[in-house]
Task: inverse folding
């Protein structure tokens, strides 16, 4: 089985956040790989990875980084693949804003789709949606997933209807 998604992170300390992307990919049975790559500490490996990911069958790259958060942008500059950036609130972060802005504010021609701070689960879902544009069976899974989200809200409203307050009218 060859990976379709590559999850990369600046260091293994980002794993508690980035594993949320892995969980959703695993739930949807999308093959993926996970690696630590640092734009600052392992630039040669980053260069090799980014330039060659598409030749290995990777369809989407999810790149998480904290602090200066250069990894997603550097990857996006070097690959023809879509890159989803996950800003990570790290120990040296300024409440995560440094990571958000570093990933979000890319120059023209080097897009990085950016999810919320620590939003790796949404990054995984977005990767699945991208893959689903070319794979009908994956798109069908995503349609079912979205329907399950709607059912959860309907169920929540049924439970909320049982909550009683003197002035509650529904």
Result:
């Amino acid at each position: 089985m060859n990976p379709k998604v590559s999850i990369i992170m600046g260091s293994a300390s980002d794993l508690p956040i980035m594993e949320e992307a892995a969980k959703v990919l695993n739930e949807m049975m999308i093959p993926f790989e996970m690696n630590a790559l640092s734009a600052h500490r392992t630039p040669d490996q980053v260069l090799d990875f980014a330039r060659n990911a598409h030749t290995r069958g990777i369809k989407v790259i999810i790149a998480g980084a904290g602090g200066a958060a250069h990894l997603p942008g550097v990857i996006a500059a070097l690959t023809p693949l879509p890159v989803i950036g996950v800003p990570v609130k790290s120990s040296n972060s300024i409440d995560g804003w440094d990571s958000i802005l570093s990933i979000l504010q890319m120059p023209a021609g080097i897009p990085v789709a950016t999810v919320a701070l620590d939003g790796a689960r949404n990054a995984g879902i977005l990767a699945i949606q991208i893959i689903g544009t070319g794979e009908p069976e994956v798109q069908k899974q995503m349609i079912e997933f979205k329907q399950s989200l709607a059912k959860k809200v309907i169920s929540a409203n049924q439970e909320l209807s049982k909550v009683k307050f003197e002035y509650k009218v529904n």
Remarks:
- The first helix runs from residue 15 to 27.
- The beta strands are 5-9, 32-36, 60-66, 83-88, 113-114.
